[in-house]
Amino acid sequence: FAEDHGSSSSPVVFEKTLIVGNDHAAQEGGYLAGLDSATGDEKWKIQRHAVKASFSTPTLYTPENGPTQAIFSSNPIALTAVEVDTGNVAWEFAGDFREDIRTVASPVIANGIVFATAGSGGGGKDCVAIRPYGKDGKPEVAWELDRALPYVPSPIATQDHLFLLGDNGTMSCVNAATGESIWRERVTGETYSSPVCIDGRIYCISRRGEMAIVAASPTFEKIAEYNFESAVHASPAVSGDRLYVRTEERLISIGKHSSEDAQAPEPVK
Known about the structure:
Mean pLDDT: 91
Order of helices and strands: EEEEEEEEEEEEEEEEEEEEEEEE
Number of strands: 24
Strand content: 35-45%
């Protein structure tokens, strides 16, 4: 992987296919691949020649009356949708990502809109918001957004809204259908980790370990705060009724919380 930072695109499993994104700018070229999850045998492979390395993990999307697709985000092709079973490219959208930026956050889907960002340094620079199958059956621009974009953290998508956590800790709520900005508030400090949404609550954790819990709502509400007192760069993981947070010092498990208070975190032995 020809990139100073290595690779951070996670593999994704769908049914019997392991999906791998290796989108980089090496001289020999990168690739997208689908492997048999049981044997590791290659089912399909697509050669790629990115301008900048992509660190973005693909997102799964199932259109009406169509097979499930893996959507990859990269530069210079902003979005590529690949049918998981066959490896056929269902559609692509070149977008308008400038050459000096790369994709890190995963694309998300809300209210039929596929949204992806790209950036550099400490923030997002460009984004695309498209309808995969427009009036002529091809991808078309739904709306545009030119500020308060995330670079490293992936957005949160609900049915009607996008929640964009910027690298500086400011979150924006956007109408997914129109791109209208509904609110923008600082919720935490500088962050690398992506927020997660559980039961209508968005958990955001800063690089300094400050966690803010915000309602996934068009009305801004900060529900609770907690300080892990240790640096956090990794995105939290969710399994069952537990939230797992990896700090620089330990792995912490958080159980179900009441409507009033978050349960105190407990270290995982």
